[in-house]
Prior knowledge:
Number of helices: 9
Strand order of the largest sheet: 1-2-4-3-5-6-7-8
Distance between the termini: 35 Å
Amino acid sequence: MTSADLADFPHPPPxxxxxxxxxxxxxxxxxxxxxxxxxxxxxxxxxGQWKAEFDISHSDKLTDALxxxxxxxxxxxxxxxGNEGGCWPGTFLDIGKGVDHLRNIADQYALDLAQVIxxxxxxxxxxxxxxxxxxxxxxxxxxxxxxxxxxxxVLGLAPAADLRGLHATEFCGDVIDQLMGGSPNxxxxxxxxxxxxxxxxxxxxxxxIIGKYDSVWAPAGLSYYKIAKARGDNVQMVEATExxxxxxxDPDSSTWPLILSSASGLFRDKx
Length: 271
């Protein structure tokens, strides 16, 4: 499967589209399971190289499938490279603001804030890990917010969670420089608080799923895994033996049972 196949994905509408800010791209799509709740919630962050041309729509099929299997989804759109206000710090501020906005709607839609995970694919996997780790950002930094929403765990699908490594290999051209406003040498503090290689999620359970046939994106996820594991983070990695990069976001693929069971397992596991 390639990125071109995503154009054929269906786009089931969300139950609710809810703004978390004033910009047209600051919204989340909420999908709810059947039943009264309270529902566990996967905050899903889509990928697409952090670029404007890849929007939330290609993740509709996945988030709809999660909701049909008992997991509410809060799918987050955000400003990206090429959008006004995107890149540093706007992209990161959007992610944090969108995640925390879940508190504002939890009672109305019977969402269980004690059962929340972040989940993301590719560039969205980087942002999902970062969203869970931002509790460790100090108060005197640009990305800090008071009392960020607590998570039960993180599910990273082919996470591009090594910004320094991607910068060094000039992956996707200069997209990392565009996202961060420059190189790690120019802005070491930005990378310190935005790159999960440097910003640890500590003991929060993290599960990374990396496709066996994902030769392009797998190195970044594997690099992050090795670094996080070595420093003592609570991180595990599973190889999706029948997946490349995109099969893991297709509920019609043979990899879907692994994705669903992994998400469900993070809600069952105790921290």
